[in-house]
Specification:
With 756 residues, the protein is an alpha+beta fold. The chain has 23 helices and 23 strands.
Amino acid sequence: MLTLLNKEAPDMVLISETKLNKRHKLNKPENYYIIAGDLNAKHTSWKNEINNTRGNFIRNWLDNKSIHYKTNLYSSELPSYPKGGSYLDICLADARLKFQNLRPNNTVKTLAYDSDHNALVFQINKNTSDFLTLETQTETPRYNYKKTDWKKFQNTLEQNCDLKIYNNVNLTNRQIDSFLDEIEKHTQIALQKSVPIIKQKNSCEPCINNKIKDLQRDKSYILSKINNIKLNYSYDKREELEFLKFLLHRIKTQLKQEFATSINHYWTNKIKNISKNDSANMFPQINQIFRPKERGPTPPLKLPPENAPLIQEAGITIHNTIKDTEGNFIIPKTIEKLDIIGTHFSKIHTQNEHMGREQLNRIIIAETNKLKNEMEQDKMLNKTVCTFSNENTADNPKQPDPEINYFTNYNQLNTILSKLNNKKSSGFDGIPNTLLKRLPNKIKWYYTVLFNNALNNTYFPRKWKKAKLIAITKKNKDGSSPANLRPINLEKAFDTVWIPGLIYKLNKKKFPKHLTKMVWDMITNRTFVMTEGSHSSSKEFSIKNGLQQGTVNSPLLFSIYNSDLLNLFDLNTSTHKRSIAFADDLIIYVTGRKTKTIKTELQELFEKINDYYHAWKLKINISKCETILFRPKSSKIGPTEREHCKKFQIREKTDKGALIPHKNCVKYLGVNIDYKLNYKQHTEIQLTKANKAFWKMKNLFHSKHLDRKVKILCYQALIRPIITYGCPICPRPPHRLPHPKANTKPLRASGKDKRK
């Protein structure tokens, strides 16, 4: 972090080191600073004729502390206070910053300014012998798809992309990759030619009216006159100079007032123009004004000393890394941060490799090796699922299995493309879903032929195996630790699925061999790159195990991998042992009349499930497991049962291992379930959430310029769903909900008349 402090003598009053360190943390090695301005400090060491108290203080401080704080002093080349011929304006800067274009004797240039002092002018750059890198932010162009000439886009792409792709022959994997590259290249060219780029606008421009322009013109004229007088100053021009300064001050005040009025008028009109009839733009406008995104760059990583191996694995030299006073490693550079986060994510995929049972491992590895050898042989012999010909064309081939739609056709592909989500970000090719929906028919036909050839070869194109990952800080977590970033609850469930085990299960469940081969090729040898804005990690990271989060098929494949468990150990076959699962969330429950019996059966069941997961290289995250005992009130059960309820606790293993937290209220799929099953706590929690959401958007609901009907729509879309979440299972009728005022406050605010 670079801190700039502009100080004047009245504000300075010898600011103590303690205050600077507390307010700006200048004592921390990862922070860099520049303190400059009128310090009213005279000393002969920076060309003044005399020393004053402030000058002596700063000189003594530099002699004693400049090495500790890595401080350099820069004075002005010419007197910064021309009237007195004094060098009052100085600059105290971090020695790790390199000042460019310095004048003789390590001084900086001065510039005439609308003040009795001249301004100091300097440029800074990184010091190559130090750790600070002032990274340039290259803006990724943003395209305005709403103003795109789609006819021009389609014509440009159709004319330029004329490939010789035939539907009656089998294509090789190399040909498929080559044709995909050609289509991608021509699509990008058509995108650049047809889609206008959103130009960066001056945020003040809409607020500048004619009166402000006139005042700015007058201000520039007066400033020019003041500077001319200062260059040729004589005593008889003193009154004229004072009068011009008075006019300048008055114009600045008028400008400030006019800007405030103009800005208020601009936002008032913008809010008034939000209409409920314009459904496409209503919520984007609401979000832009009242609910702006707060996503910022990942903060500098702070890693404890025990994470030194992670830093080294990321290819960063330890002895060049900054440390804070507590010995933590500080990683401020964006690319180094991305390298460390990527290394951390890649290690997650291998953390369960030591698990499993030896005999089961041997059986599964033998089965998967057999499949791999078969696939290698298929490639050598050019063996495919079918042979394309004039009778069986690649744009609409016959299905190898009548019960499974393995291949696609033009109509199916067109339907899939039309349903793509426009808000999904693009991959490394930079082609968004909006563009894929508008592809000309010829290109869609090309894709149909290429997709079917890839399926026919059980081949997943290599370039689509490289993912672009963006690290997002988990809610209410410190973003300076890699463990608090997503995609980081079996523990790391999707990321640790044992791929040979998944393929083995697909075989045992009699999936078609060609489909299993396709899945294998799709989920193996994948890589990812960490990105943040226009920056990318310096290397690719391999995904050795696990299913990649964010892909369409990962939840389905995980469910297949986990599906056997639901019918093991008498689950869902006996009347008192049940289990349900949603993605990686699993619930097991036991019913009975005696608490002690329930505890014993649940303990045994948990141990069996834990052993099963260990055999299949999945680890249960004990800290995220919870137990709850649904029971009557304590006053309605006997003393023995009451005692068993108090001591109800499940461990990772009987008599040893970690305790699973026991709760009186648990949360599942967003519903808070209490031990009485009356959902009172769920109702109260949802009302509290709704109140918090309302207060976050209070500017929206209390805006006197926003149409009442728009407010009501916002309430229905943003507040009411929070209140009514899970209400179909709530036994309490709506009129008996607690805290009715909390329920209606946003609605009452929405329904208020506009204030006159």
